[in-house]
Amino acid sequence: MRDVASERDVDSRSTVNERVVTLDVNGRTYTLRLDTRVTLLDALRDRLGLVGTKKGCDQGACGACTVHLDGRRVLSCLTLAAQAEGREITTIEGLTGADGPHPVQRAFMEHDGFQCGFCTPGQIMSAVALMAEGRAGSDEEIREYMSGNICRCGAYPNIVAAIRAVASGGGHDAHL
42 lies in which domain range? Predict the structure, then answer.
């Protein structure tokens, strides 16, 4: 399916720093005219309205903007939208399936893995990737590979418990 975000995204006007970029996000294709310096984070939030991905520090230090690019976690504030062209992008909005919330999303709710909730989308995206990477063997390993995601409220023990619960359940539910 091909979507055009809006008529103002692709038009006959262009500047030296603009180009047409095609992004595959959560199973849908979007064609946008973007400045080549636009980050994936800004394209997702400002141009596509996918505001689940959060802008925290905008410097790659907090992990709030974590998304999956071809199944691997990336910081969307440090990734140019043009770099994601032709690659599969999954945001927090894309994790929910026909059966409802992803198992990691359910576990975060069951284990109170959030307080204010601002970091939660990035935490969940990182947790799903960490399990797909096979890095949820112990609490220490979970803490190490989640260390790029900051929770200002301090819900770390609950986040680890949520990840451990899903990872110990095994099977396909522990992965994307």
Answer: 2-94
- What does the radius of gyration of the chain's CA atoms come to, in whole angstroms? 17
Last residue of a domain, one of 94, 123, 140: 94
Number of structural domains (the chain) is 2
Q: Which of 94, 111, 129 is the last residue of a domain?
A: 94
What is the secondary structure of 27-46 as a DSSP string? TEEEEEEEETT-BHHHIIII
Maximum C-alpha span of the chain: 54
Spacing of C-alpha 166 from chain mean position = 18
Q: What is the pLDDT of residues 135-145, one digit of tens each?
A: 999 999 999 99
Sheet holding 18-25, edge to edge: 2-4, 28-35, 18-25, 88-90, 66-69, 72-75
* pTM of the entire predicted model: 0.87
Pair 92, 64: CB distance under 8 Å: no
